[in-house]
Structure formats: C-alpha cells, structure tokens
Amino acid sequence: MDRYESANKAGILGILGNLFLLIIKGFAGFTFKSQAMIADSFNSAGDILSSLFTFIGNKISSKPGDNDHNFGHGKSEYIFSFLISISMIIVSAKLLFDSVSSLVNHNTLDFSILLVIVCVVTIIVKFALFLYTRYLLKKEHNILIEANSKDHFNDCIITTCTLISILFSLVGIFWMDSVVGIIISFYIFYTGIKIFLESYNVLMDISIDEDTKKIILDITNKYEDIKEVESIYSTPSGYKYIVIITISVDGNMTTFNSHTLADNLESDIKNLDKVSNAIVHVNPV
Predict the structure, then answer these.
(1) Which residues of the chain have pLDDT under 50?
(2) Both 199 and 259 in a single domain?
(3) Residues 240 and 138 occupy one common structural domain
(4) Cα(282)–Cα(250) distance, integer angstroms
(5) Separation in Å, CA 102 to CA 32, 49, 167, 178, 244
(6) Same domain for 148 and 233?
(7) Digit-coded pLDDT (tens) for 108-145
(8) Structural domain tally of the chain?
(9) Sheet of strand 226-237: strand arrangement
(10) pTM (two decimals)
(11) Is the separation of the CB atoms in 53 and 87 below 8 Å?
(12) I need a surface site. Which of 6, 85, 105, 184 has the fewest CB within 10 A?
C-alpha cells in the first residue's frame, strides 16, 4: 500500500465514521436540545467535508506531471484545504451565535441517557480511528494522514467536554451546555484559521523553512568544487518543495564534470524529506 492509497483509505474511513456520528449526534442534540451536542454534530459535518476534500485532493495530487502541469498536481491538496477552512469559519460563526443566544436566553436541555451513550460511542469510534490513522502514519509519513489523526484525537477531547456538560445538567447546571458549545465553536474557528493560513502560504508560494535551507547549504558546502552558492529559491508542490539552486564553479571545469557535479548535488538534495525535486544551475567563475 503506497502513501496515496493509505491516505485514501484514511479518508474513506473518516467519511463513513463521521457520517455515522453526525446522524446520531444530530438526532440526540436536536431531540434533547443540547447545544453542545448540536455543536459537536456540526463538528462531525465539518469532518465529513474535510475527509471528502482530503480524498478528492489526494486523488488529484497523486497524478504525475504532464504538459499542462509540469510540476504535478500537488497544490490541489491546498486548494481543497482552503475551501475547507472557509466552510469551518462560517460554521463556527453560526455555532457561536446559537450558543451565545442559548446562554443569554437561559435555555435548558432535556437530559437523556441517550446523550451519554452517544458521547461514549463517539469517543470509542474516534479513538479507534485515531489509533488506525496513527498506525498508517508510522508506515507512510503522509501529511494528510497526520492531519486526520490529529483531528480524530481532538474530537475525542471535544466529545469528552460535551459529555461533561451533559452530566452537569443532572445537577441543574444547564449553562455549562451553552459554554461548551461556545468552546467548540472557538475550536472550530481556530482550526479553520490554521488551515486557512497553511493553505494560503502554500498557494502564495511560501519559501522552504530556514532550517531546511541551512541543511541544503551544509550539503552544498561538502562539495569542494563549488566556489559559491549564488541563490536558493523554492516553491511548494503539494506538501513538499521544488528547490532551485544556482552555484558557481571553476570556469575551467569541463561541461561533463560540471553536469556530473550538478546531478550529484540534485540527488543529495532530493533525498531530504521536504524536497520533491531539485534543479541545479551552474555558473562558471
């Protein structure tokens, strides 16, 4: 199973698991008027959209380069992530408004053991998905799988908070339900902003991080025939980068030797985890 197949499998399981949770959370939340459970169900709806976009984006990004897209289709992951972030921000605003209104109006929920059962089932399903995606992550080191794994773990925490708010209603503390709804809405907003910024930076061709750039310079400095590194440019391609480096060599070096040097340097740079391709341009001095 390659990294794309692993991401697809994680995406499909995420869609199925979250669809099941959306149905039972939505039914329980609206039936018993639990604002926290309703917010949690919206979080599951967002997770379905996220998993769906992950699946589609992964399918497109796995396509190799062609005449129209020379460097592949890697950025499609971030186009879909950008759309996910916008939808999450809109949903969080709606949830925040509803939760604050519920708090101001002193709304109460109708306690039911079904609410507790839904929370427990959600935690079990999400923790199982977290363990499975963590297993895939150790094998493939795929950024999409990593995002799914973190999301499943965070959902365990969110639903635990929902369960606590429901249990508080047993002793007449109904405002806790609205407070947890507010907390969940802020969490969804925070996650949406993080995804938005990450997607925006990649789509705007943010450069590779300084630590990786330093590693590239260290690799280059090991070649005695390289007199100077004139420039290092990079552009994102999916979750990795294409690195374009210009070096200076002795003007008396033969073309064959300079090209061999460039090929070896490209190979060394492409071995880095964050680099998908490297292009070395040689200038004589």
Answers:
(1) 1
(2) no
(3) no
(4) 10
(5) 14, 26, 18, 6, 55
(6) no
(7) 778 889 999 999 999 999 999 999 988 887 876 666 67
(8) 2
(9) 226-237, 240-249, 275-284
(10) 0.70
(11) no
(12) 105
